[in-house]
Amino acid sequence: MALRARALYDFRSENPGEISLQEHEVLSLCSEQDIEGWLEGVNSRGDRGLFPASYVQVIRGLAAEPPPPARYANLPAGGFEPLPPPAAFKPATQQASPAAAPEPFPLPLATGYPFPLALYGGSYQPSQGSDDDWDDDWDDSSTVADEPGALGSSYPDYEAAGGGPSGRYRMSTRSDLSLGSRGGGGPPGGHGHPPGGGGGGGAKSSATVSRNLNRFSTFVKSGGEAFVLGEASGFVKDGDKLCVVLGPRGPEWQENPYPFQCSIEDPTKQTKFKGMKSYIAYKLVPSHTGQQVHRRYKHFDWLYGRLAEKFPVISVPHLPEKQATGRFEEDFISKRRKGLAWWMDHMCSHPVLAQCDAFQHFLTCPSTDEKAWKQGKRKAEKDEMVGANFFLTISVPTGPGASLDLQEVESQVDGFKAFTKKMDESTLQLNHTANEFARKQVTGFKKEYQKVGHSFKCLSQAFELDQQAFSASLNQAIAFTAETYDAIGDLFADQPRQDLDAVMDLLALYQGHLANFPDIIHVQKGALTKVKETKRHMEEGKMELQKAEGIQERCNIISFATLAEINHFHKIRVRDFKSQMQHFLQQQILFFQKVTQKLEEALHKYDSV
To answer: What mean pLDDT do residues 257-265 have?
Structure first.
């Protein structure tokens, strides 16, 4: 029997291991046995991989060359076991760097799953650097908060204003849970379902929205897919609600009703275990409490990990990089403090991050109260509003005209994607240029000006061999000129600390933001793909209106949140770069004024010659 098939519909591959199909295209099949709704074969362009079985029709009775050997021919006939929902897996670890790309998905034979369970639903894992040791005050066998209220709101009027934890509401999207089921042989890739339902000509209104085959994608790991497919369910407290409002620039996060700032000062070296272990502690003074607390870098690192896991559609600013050696050198400590100050400014300026319970616990828990710190830490780590449930906490505008136009949303997101790519390239270029220019100022310019000064000094010493009294003032003026050029060289060497270093600190912070947005955009794009799939089913009469509207409504929530985050990024970007460019130019003006002043002083020395 011939192992050939004809494509009934177009199919666009989006994940590793898949191939694209064109309508009416003839393919060579490796096997007629499908792998949970997927076949393996070679298309007319010679590409080999997986494609949905329901997108093709097997051509029988035609002679054909022997099929290529199937890569998955030894899989059990029963296919894979149904995947449990993402909520069944407890988030464990996620790499801090969003740039790390997953390897192509494996297909192990023994487990029954198309991906290693240990990698599914991964969350951020704080790195264990040398300045980030997890000693006994962190390692605690208990993982349950023993006492309630350890992580309550730190705002005095917050609960009175309706933002406290008093109200608790059951939120669920399980009314159309069947949309995400893997029954019916539907393709697990999120690329749309052809007419005819899941693999075998199902009845009308039985089409399902398929899962992504790539279970390592950000859309899956963030819980976005589970939320869109209606699998999220949990209790949402009033204090957990994140409101998106319509502002003059479109969707925006609702402003923090109690804005505040937090200074980071006086990094000091401290010891523990009778001096056997040393670390740097930073003094934090939040403006809304006025009470100082001391935090180590590992505390910042822990907080970043919790926030990066909890908020998949929010750009959590990256921390300054770690350093294996020289952690107690003055220059490194000063640079890290400045980086942490920028990080803290962006945290306090974000309407959502600033009000997060974990962040408030970090800012307000007394440094000496170890029990309260551990209780708050455990409670943050047991937060149920993560993954798919996080999206339940987002409240968006409702009523006529509140729904977003998906084509317009897609256009805006595509435009922002192009913007971030260009901004990333330009910040890298500027950072390289600034680094090179600073290096020249510290070494090259200083050396060259001091060479000039030395030459003038040699000339002055030569003139001093002339014992004539009337040339003494000239000799002194030339000697002063030599000293002036030495001093100008020192000014050049010190100047990067005043202007360029601050610019490079800002660029480093924004490079972290720009590294976050591809994942945020991927979540929104994944939601849009599901909506397009439901629209095709609706046009073909294969899906109920209620189910399609549920998916579109949940995609609308993700789109609102994504656009709100984009608008916040632009708002804070304009503020930061305006302030920093003003500071840079002001420092440049002061620098050249100092240089001019020294040259004028040297010039006046010749008036008395």
So the answer is: 93
pLDDT at 104 over 80: no
482 and 456 in contact (C-beta within 8 Å)? yes
Q: Where in the chain is the domain with CATH 2.30.30.40?
A: 4-59
Does 93 have pLDDT greater than 50?
no
Query: Does the pLDDT at position 500 exceed 90?
Result: yes
For residue 40, give the nearest of 24, 61, 18 by alpha carbon.
Answer: 18
Cα separations in angstroms, 308 against 92, 128, 319, 516? 13, 17, 12, 10
Is there a contact between 530 and 190 (Cβ–Cβ < 8 Å)? yes
Mean pLDDT value of segment 363-390? 91
CA dist., res. 299 & res. 305, Å (int): 10
pLDDT tens digits for range 519-557: 999 999 989 988 888 888 888 888 888 888 888 899 999
336 is in an annotated binding site: yes
Q: Is 296 flagged in the annotation as binding?
A: yes
Ranked by mean pLDDT, the top range of 34-38, 157-161, 293-297, 332-336 is: 293-297
For 5, 52, 351, the CA distances from 185, given in Å and listed in that order, are 18, 9, 44
Please tell me whether 269 is known to bind a ligand: no
Dist. CA 475–CA 71, nearest whole Å: 89
Position 575 scores a pLDDT of: 96
Q: Environment class of residue 518 by beta-carbon count within 10 Å: exposed (0-12), middle (13-18) or buried (19+)? A: middle
- Its pTM stands at 0.68
For residue 387, give the nearest of 555, 543, 223 by alpha carbon: 223
- The Cα 95–Cα 294 span in angstroms is 27
The CATH number fitting domain 252-395, selected from 3.30.1520.10, 3.40.50.300, 3.40.720.10, 3.30.450.20: 3.30.1520.10
Identity of residue 32: E
